[in-house]
Automatic annotation (TrEMBL):
Belongs to the polysaccharide lyase 9 family. The lineage of its organism: Bacteria, Bacillati, Actinomycetota, Actinomycetes, Micromonosporales. Pfam families: DUF1565, Pel9A-like_beta_helix. Keywords: Calcium, Lyase, Metal-binding, Secreted, Signal. It comes from Micromonospora endophytica. GO terms for molecular function: carbon-oxygen lyase activity, acting on polysaccharides; metal ion binding. This is Pectate lyase. One of its GO terms (cellular component) is extracellular region. Residues 155-326 form the Pel9A-like right handed beta-helix region domain. Residues 39-78 form the DUF1565 domain. It is found in: Secreted.
Length: 395
């Protein structure tokens, strides 16, 4: 019997699964747009009135400057969707939902969902969406039950916006290799787990084992993943992370044997690979171990106006780097801060001293539905009751 996933986080309404039937590859692409629908046909020209059936067919037809619009519904292909062609700076290729329709790409029928304990996933089969092309924009999609949600290899100048990657059998969104100038905007990644590695590998967002400048993460919410919320393991170039949240990571919600999930909110590297990351205006709470951690990345990190609350390990652990921490708030953690010999800072709650009461410890609003623009909702959650300009602010 196939191992069935535990759906973590917010329960989402189920849609009927329609497995697209592959048809002969005869249709020529329209001038600038291709449409795909669960009741389409791959013999169709890919117009709004006569859509294609399979996402891969549309991807294969797309040229620089094209937009692929997916109509609402659940798509459950038996092999992963591969984005291998390149757009250009003036003509990116876009794969997105049509208007505000809910589009789910379900990878449960793909191989390696899950891979066996100790097994491996061939690189081309990683990701319900596997991307190696440059200048792609992925917008407004929900990716579930895949062998990784989205897996990017040597991907540059990509935009990943308003995506949901949940309940995948590896990390929700994973980028590695030579990858530069990618923007990850308003991502929700939760409930991702990796039975093959006993929970040690599946993060909400992973940018790992590579290099490349100009990568930015903004407005991400990363929760209830088996390993870490965010993981920059052995990525040797700076990444800027802003206005993001990580909570509930590292707990064994799936009864995986010999569980080894790490349980940090924001893990900024590892294995003594140096990169100078910046994290601003972000929050980590209720993770299994830590909030913000350098994880033996000896770089010069800038950690500014962040909040760590109720993590049983360290709220801020930058004891193995040369980091500057400014205006951060740590309350109710096992250890609020560990700076070691070389990290320093000013204006943090531990510098200012005293006790810190919080305006709200109820996360219901900030973890609830996003705004119409995809932003994280405004909330007084974890703001200092005295309104001091310390810690993250989502107001």
């Amino acid at each position: 019997m196939k191992w069935k996933p535990f759906t973590a986080g917010i329960l989402l309404a189920a849609s009927a699964v329609v497995v697209p039937a592959a048809g002969p590859a005869t249709a020529a692409p329209p001038a600038a747009a291709l449409f795909v629908a669960t009741n389409g046909n791959d013999d169709n020209p890919g117009t709004l009135a006569a859509p294609l059936a399979s996402i891969q067919r549309a991807v294969d037809l797309a040229q620089p400057g094209h937009t692929i619009y997916l109509r609402g519904g659940t798509y459950a292909p038996s092999s992963n969707i591969q984005l291998l062609a390149d757009g250009t700076s003036s003509q990116p290729i876009t794969l997105r939902n049509h208007r505000n329709e809910r589009v789910i790409i379900d990878g449960e029928n793909m191989p390696h969902t899950p891979a066996p304990v100790g097994g491996s996933i061939p690189r081309p089969q990683r990701g319900a969406i596997h991307i190696e092309g440059d200048w792609w924009r992925l917008i407004g999609l929900e990716i579930i039950n895949g062998p990784y949600g989205i897996f990017g290899l040597d991907v540059n100048n990509g935009v990943f916006e308003r995506l949901v990657t949940r309940d995948n059998y590896e990390s929700g969104l994973h980028i590695q290799g030579s990858s530069s100038n990618n923007q990850i905007i308003n991502l929700d990644a939760y409930g991702n787990r990796d039975p093959r590695k006993n929970g040690e590998s599946a993060d909400g967002l992973a940018i790992k084992e590579g290099s490349g400048t100009g990568n930015v993460v903004r407005g991400a919410r990363l929760w209830n993943n088996s390993d870490d919320g965010l993981d920059y393991w052995m990525f040797s170039s700076p990444i800027r992370t802003e206005a993001s949240l990580a909570w509930g990571n590292g707990f064994n919600r799936w009864n995986l044997p010999d569980y080894t999930g790490d349980g940090n909110g924001f893990k900024l590297g590892g294995n003594q690979v140096a990169a100078d990351h910046t994290v601003r205006n972000s929050m980590a709470w209720n993770n299994a171990v830590g909030g913000f951690i350098d994880n033996n990345n000896p770089g010069q990190h800038r950690i500014e106006r962040n909040t760590a609350w109720n993590n049983p390990g360290a709220g801020f652990d930058f004891s193995r780097s040369t980091s500057t921490l400014t205006g951060n708030l740590a309350v109710g953690n096992g250890t609020n801060v560990s700076l070691g010999a070389n990290s320093h800072g000013s204006g943090n709650s531990w510098d200012l001293g005293g006790s810190w009461s919080l305006a709200s410890t109820n996360p219901a609003t900030i973890t609830g539905p996003r705004t119409a623009t995809g932003a994280i909702p405004s909330s007084t959650f974890l703001r200092p009751a005295n309104k001091a300009p310390v810690g993250a602010c989502f107001q």
